[in-house]
Amino acid sequence: MWLVLFCPTPIFLYLIFKPNPMKKILFALPFALLFASCGNSTDTPTKTDSTGTTESSSNLDWKKIELVKMLAGNYGYRLEGTETLLFDKKEFEHGRPFAEGFAIVSKGSGDDEKFGFIDATGKQVMDYKFKELKDFSNGLALAQENKDGLWGFINTKGEWAIKPMYKNAWPFANGRARIAEGEVMSKYMKQFEDAKYGFINTKGDTVIAINYNDASDFGEGWAAVAKNGKYGFVDTTGKEVIAFKYDQADKFVHGIAPVFKGSKCGFIDKTEKVIVPIQYSSYKYVYHYIGFNIFDEDNIEYDVDGKLIIVSKGEKWGMVDLTGKTVVDFLYSELSLPEEGYINCKKGDNAGLLDLTGKEIIPCEYVELGKLSEGLISAKKGEKWGFLDAAGKMVIDFKYDRAYDFSSGEASVYEGDVYIKVDKTGKETYRADATK
Fold this sequence. Notes:
Blueprint: H1 2-5, H2 9-17, H3 23-40, E1 46-48, E2 54-56, E3 65-69, E4 75-79, E5 94-95, E6 102-107, E7 114-119, E8 124-130, E9 132-133, E10 141-144, E11 151-154, E12 160-166, E13 168-173, E14 176-182, E15 195-200, E16 206-212, E17 214-215, E18 222-227, E19 230-235, E20 240-246, E21 248-249, E22 257-261, E23 264-268, E24 274-280, E25 282-285, E26 289-290, E27 299-303, E28 308-313, E29 316-321, E30 326-332, E31 334-335, E32 342-347, E33 350-355, E34 360-366, E35 368-369, E36 376-381, E37 384-389, E38 394-400, E39 402-403, E40 411-415, E41 418-422, E42 428-433
Parallel strand pairs: 25-27
Antiparallel strand pairs: 1-2, 3-4, 5-6, 6-7, 7-8, 9-10, 10-11, 11-12, 13-14, 14-15, 15-16, 17-18, 18-19, 19-20, 21-22, 22-23, 23-24, 25-26, 27-28, 28-29, 29-30, 31-32, 32-33, 33-34, 35-36, 36-37, 37-38, 39-40, 40-41, 41-42
Helix pairs in contact: 2-3
């Protein structure tokens, strides 16, 4: 039926009913075109998900393609909710998640590692030629051809949109890329007297002068910048929108930004209203850490995606929302950053799991928990390991001496020195003597 829907129906009917001595020949012509079209359709690869639905690779939504690490250490890509690898099950030595329709892949390691990128059909748009390559942002990717070389920006064709000319540069955000002159000693936000920061636009023009002692990336139209030892905020034109009065600051996310006064930090909104009290010593983003835990005081961890902030009071951890309201009481000795929508937690030495609302879905009664992956999580009870589902129900018995997270439908486990692979039902798919 799908093939018929793509046939030129009006022409088909015309050829059937038009009086013509060549009617029989013309009648056969659409069928010839149909079969020719069927032959050409194989040029576009298709993939089948777990429900049997087939989708053309050229029609895939890159936002639904997820990165998966294989048991052997390679990387592949699959659609959310499926287990079959895309792109004819192709694997890469290294891979990153898709961003703006492209994914960074690489081969080699150490000084020999080279980066390129693929599109959402799996096509290698740029071969392995870059020594460093960052994700696409605002249509451009930060790239470096040679080790310790200058940085520039490439477009989605792999061409230089902004030629390599920067010793220090960061990816674009809100149409602006942070650049720095001088020696930058750390990727973390901290003042260095011999470094000066500014911003360029996507044409490579310097739009905010390189005269700040420090700068964050732009977030929600504003960036934190520093001069004369104090931090304030500027907009994308360089206009100062919050005065320089904080001892440290970072970009806005979900309407709030972290700021320090002395050794204490909290969060403000764009009107400078304090949302989370300025009473903590450090905090951490999901993907990057800012602040240095040099004081024996409270910490903050900031969950960008879940719109929650993980905070501590003394040695106990809880969670507040973006209004500063407590949503998880301070009962935990540890709260990790979220992964796959869940938060590993501990009460004393016992491990459990929370969802992003703070509900304890796996009680803190296990010696150790892995990370929830593909719907299952490895758990240690007593001296043995098994697997639970996201509701805390045991799926695979506690009988292994070690267990690792699931990947591509399989998990690695050990019985003594014997290495085994199991599927999600606990059935062994491979067994080998690990001592050989």
